[in-house]
Write a structure and sequence with these properties.
It is a single chain. The protein is an alpha/beta fold. Helix content is about 50%, strand content about 10%. The strands form 2 sheets. Strands 1-8-5-4-2-3 form a 6-stranded parallel beta sheet, with helices on both faces. It has a two-stranded antiparallel ribbon with strand order 6-7. The termini are far apart. Bound molecules: zinc ion (ZN).
């Protein structure tokens, strides 16, 4: 659309590297003197000692809250109260998606600075300007869009290297979607995820994200399995966390993420977000009529790094489930409609069936 304003959004500061957290205060100290750390249990263990060391002898106020479970309305209220009672300047998230989403929402409602310290690289959520909010009973409440992206994101790659490799692989699945979903959105001149025109900068980051996955994915998986930090691991962490997050925010999602939303409609426990997005990317390629060479090329990449190529690998086993996924992935407002031609559930169903069959054929 001609009249849409192009816009570009990203975190104001992004810092990544081996033992980065030892420089936490040096990099973030300008934001204030009273800190609330919203941590998952494992996030707390991964970051606490290094962050404390970074403060040296400073008497800044630091409060660590171990966070229970999901980014729910109730948890956010609890954190808002702490921010007010303790006169907090900066809210810091330390953990996976739930801690990140809770901290982002808290900082937004209280008008405070927000720093995100992801302790796994399983999704591209840290750099984005939105959160997924749940009700206290665990059901979906809303996507909360913020007027800006986080003040800062800091990734300690030693922490990522010491987390289970399945998280890094899932993050690569989420990142794989970014380029293909972005391309689909650009083709149809859709708005960005944030509702603005798509910039050339956003497109370039989405493309670089994909190229980085292809060039360094296999090596990074091996490094992470051995719990060592190498240039390949650094490159993939940057792709999963920064390039994919800023890329997706500034282009848009499409069928791969709608496929994931369809999977969540099945209820209960489901495979990791990134694993569903990876298979959803293969489904999208089928839906778009990608030539065989291209489909096989992406499928091979998934096989090489350990991403799923069949439904069984993401826990989908019945035809009924596939129909439910296809229905829910095509409801109005889903990003699948960034594809050309008003995709119908029967078309998506057919694409899922073909993608799965082609996966089963190579898995044997
Ligand atoms: Zn995603």
């Amino acid at each position: 659309m001609m009249g849409r304003l192009r816009a570009m959004r990203e975190p104001l500061k992004y810092v990544q590297g081996r033992d980065a957290l030892l420089k936490f205060h040096e990099e973030m100290g300008y934001m204030g003197h009273r800190w609330l750390f919203v941590c998952s249990g494992s996030g707390y263990r991964a970051v606490h000692d290094k962050i404390e060391q970074s403060f040296g002898g400073l008497d800044d106020y630091r409060r660590y809250e171990i966070f229970g479970g999901i980014s729910s309305v109730g948890e956010i209220e609890k954190m808002k109260k702490i921010v007010a009672d303790d006169n907090i300047d900066v809210v810091v998230a330390a953990g996976g998606g739930s801690a990140v989403d809770t901290a982002k929402a808290t900082a937004h409602y209280c008008g405070k600075h927000i720093v995100v310290v992801p302790t796994v690289a399983a999704t591209d959520a840290p750099c984005t300007g939105l959160s997924v909010i749940y009700n206290d009973d665990g059901t979906f409440n809303q996507y909360l869009f913020y007027p800006k992206n986080p003040d800062a994101v800091m990734v300690d790659t030693c922490v990522i290297a010491n987390a289970p490799v399945k998280f890094l692989i899932a993050g690569m699945g989420d990142a794989l979607g970014t380029y293909f979903e972005g391309l689909a959105s650009i083709r149809t001149e859709s708005a960005s995820l944030e509702g603005t025109g798509i910039t050339r900068a956003g497109m370039a980051l989405a493309k670089l994200c994909y190229e980085t996955l292809r060039e360094y994915g296999v090596q990074a998986v091996e490094a992470c399995k051995q719990h060592v930090v190498t240039p390949a691991l650094e490159n993939i962490v940057e792709a999963n966390v920064y390039l994919s997050g800023v890329g997706a925010d500034n282009v848009n999602c499409a069928a791969a993420h709608s496929f994931y939303d369809g999977v969540t409609a099945l209820g209960g426990k489901h495979a990791q977000h990134g694993n569903c997005v990876a298979f959803g990317t293969l489904v999208q390629l089928v839906l778009e009529g990608a030539p065989n060479d291209q489909f096989k090329d992406i499928q091979n990449f998934c096989l090489e790094v350990g991403l799923p190529v069949t439904l069984e690998e993401i826990g989908i086993t019945t035809d009924e489930q596939i129909k439910t996924i296809a229905e829910h992935a095509c409801v109005p407002g889903e990003t699948i409609h960034n594809l050309a031609g008003d995709v119908q559930p029967i078309e998506l169903y057919s694409a899922i069936i073909q993608a799965d069959a082609m996966g089963r054929a190579v898995k044997g």
